[in-house]
């Protein structure tokens, strides 16, 4: 059976290769950044097992590594090495020759992920192929490997070139690659440390909790605000649901949990449209497209976010309390 841990090892090996490539070119800061990131992927399960066994040192070392990543990202400009003019011409000529066939490997990822997920759950013979505890992640990882094979077939390139260009893309994205993982972890930390209960106590002092509308506005606004801060609606959701959604809207005012959770999550994504902290949505595209305005994506999305927020609040008021 292919476990999620096996795919993490592959990611760690790729990061290590990228670090080695940077080190050979004298880009020591980039090499150090990617080397530090190898540890959670290559040794994450071992560190987690040691933590469960009561050994605090590995987890503390991981925390030191996270701080070191932040220092490197803050003090060193993480960027890809510029291509030579010949390399740029070669890549443009190859893209023109391949045309729309370049989209085929990208489309393989969602199609294969869906097929693998469905097959691993309901098709006899495929059950047990992927890690049932992380089925979606395992399906996505295996689909990405299939897409890599498809890309090599379409472009007639070698695996070495794929690793080199993948590392170049990592260098171009820099710290933005790490931010979503950090923010998702931050949401778990907030939930585990009782931030939701603290928010419930603060909300109870600020708004009239007997008013359903006031609680609903606080929930929607909190989802947007926390998503803007943490860059991830998944990180904001457990905090706001524990602080406002469950005790006030569901238990006190009788809101339907399923519809409140679904529309509340969508409301959080209004904040995703407004924040640079959602780097994978708002900063990475600007880097890849080489936009002059780093926040151009956010500026274009702001009006949509406001309209969608108003619509979601009205939808929750109509659906969740029927």
From TrEMBL:
One Pfam family it belongs to: DUF979
UniProt keyword terms in alphabetical order: Membrane, Transmembrane, Transmembrane helix
UniProt name for this protein: DUF979 domain-containing protein
InterPro entries: DUF979 (IPR009323)
Keyword Membrane: yes
Native source organism of the sequence: Pseudoxanthomonas composti
Ranges annotated as spanning the membrane: 6-23, 30-48, 60-78, 98-122, 134-154, 175-203, 223-250, 262-288, 300-321
């Amino acid at each position: 059976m292919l476990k999620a841990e096996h795919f993490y090892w592959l990611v760690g090996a790729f990061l290590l290769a990228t670090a080695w490539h940077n080190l050979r070119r004298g880009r020591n800061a980039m090499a150090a950044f990617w080397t530090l990131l190898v540890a959670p992927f290559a040794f994450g399960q071992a560190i987690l097992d040691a933590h469960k066994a009561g050994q605090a040192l590995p987890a503390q070392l991981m925390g030191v590594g996270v701080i070191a990543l932040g220092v490197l990202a803050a003090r060193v400009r993480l960027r890809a090495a510029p291509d030579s003019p010949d390399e740029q011409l070669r890549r443009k000529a190859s893209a023109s020759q391949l045309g729309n066939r370049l989209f085929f490997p990208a489309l393989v990822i969602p199609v294969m992920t869906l097929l693998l997920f469905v097959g691993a759950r309901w098709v006899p013979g495929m059950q047990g192929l992927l890690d049932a505890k992380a089925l979606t992640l395992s399906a996505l990882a295996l689909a990405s490997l299939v897409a890599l094979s498809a890309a090599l077939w379409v472009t007639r390139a070698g695996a070495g070139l794929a690793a080199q260009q993948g590392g170049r893309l990592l260098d171009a994205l820099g710290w933005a690659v790490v931010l979503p993982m950090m923010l998702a972890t931050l949401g778990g930390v907030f939930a585990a440390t009782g931030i939701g209960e603290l928010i419930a106590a603060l909300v109870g002092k600020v708004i009239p909790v007997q008013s359903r509308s006031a609680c609903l506005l606080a929930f929607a606004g909190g989802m947007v605000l926390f998503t803007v801060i943490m860059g991830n609606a998944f990180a904001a959701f457990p905090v706001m649901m524990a602080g406002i959604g469950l005790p006030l809207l569901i238990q006190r005012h009788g809101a339907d949990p399923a519809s409140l959770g679904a529309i509340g999550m969508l409301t959080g994504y209004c904040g995703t449209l407004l924040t640079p902290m959602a780097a994978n949505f708002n900063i990475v595209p600007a880097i890849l497209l080489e936009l002059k305005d780093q926040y151009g994506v956010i500026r274009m999305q702001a009006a949509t976010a406001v309209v969608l927020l108003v619509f979601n609040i009205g939808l929750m008021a109509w659906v969740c309390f029927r």
